[in-house]
Amino acid sequence: MGIRRPRTETTTRTTPAGVEYLVNKNGFPVVHCGRCGGSGDYSFNPMDGTTCFGCHGSAFQTPAGLPSQLATEWSNAVRAAKQVNTAAYWSPVTREITCEVQVGDQVAHHGDKEWSTVAGVRITRRITGSAFVGLNPDGSPTLHTLTLESWLTYADGRRERGGYLLRRRPDVAALHALRDDLAARARAAYEERLDRKVRAHR
């Protein structure tokens, strides 16, 4: 049987109209999974056991609409804060060069325990990845970004070529502030939805 995923920790909140609902540990509203009924289990397969794919075994889902969009924004922010791509890209759409890693970031290779401070990011015009411009079935163009050469210099003088993923030391205070803002907006939207249903039945 596959590895069991931990169930989501929840607490109860109440809307202005007196409707109770659940929020997860990050403050986002959640509902019991509609696929497994809140058990976290569904049909068996040899790879994942009985883990429900609808909730990944957590037994809960974020309500559809704005609450789900805001929860996804939070998940993406956490992922982006902890990982950075050192490659540089040129977009034929925006005609701009971008690189996720910035001077001042504290980064480390996966497995390293010590953080290194990025002192410089140099991007050359040398193309290290192929580009292809084709046509979609409707005749519109398909544009792919070009990967450019990038070099990182660290505060201790080390220098290495980019093109890989690093762990980035997150700004915990900024992440918590973002989480609280997104969760508050998600709760407000969900509470309005619940209270609107109550008013409609009066």
Would you write up a description of this structure?
- There is one protein chain.
- Helices cover 23% and strands 35% of the residues.
- With 202 residues, it is of the alpha+beta class.
- The chain has two domains: 66 residues, no CATH class; 88 residues, no CATH class.
- The strands form four sheets. Strands 7, 8, 9, 10, 11, 14, 15 and 16 form an eight-stranded antiparallel β-sheet that branches. Strands 1-2-3-6 form a four-stranded antiparallel β-sheet.
- The longest helix is centred in the C-terminal third of the chain and has 29 residues.
Task: Describe the structure in brief.
This protein is an alpha+beta fold and 202 residues long.
Structural class: alpha+beta
Shape: elongated
Q: Give the fraction of residues assigned to helices.
A: 10-25%
Contiguous uncertain segments of 5+ residues = none
Please trace the helix and strand order, writing H or E for each element.
EEEEEEHEEEEEEEEEEH
Largest sheet geometry: 8 strands, antiparallel
The overall number of domains is: 2
Compute the number of strand runs: 16
Secondary structure tally, helices: 2
Distance between the termini: 49 Å
Mean pLDDT over all positions: 87
Radius of gyration: 23 Å
Proportion of strand residues:
25-35%
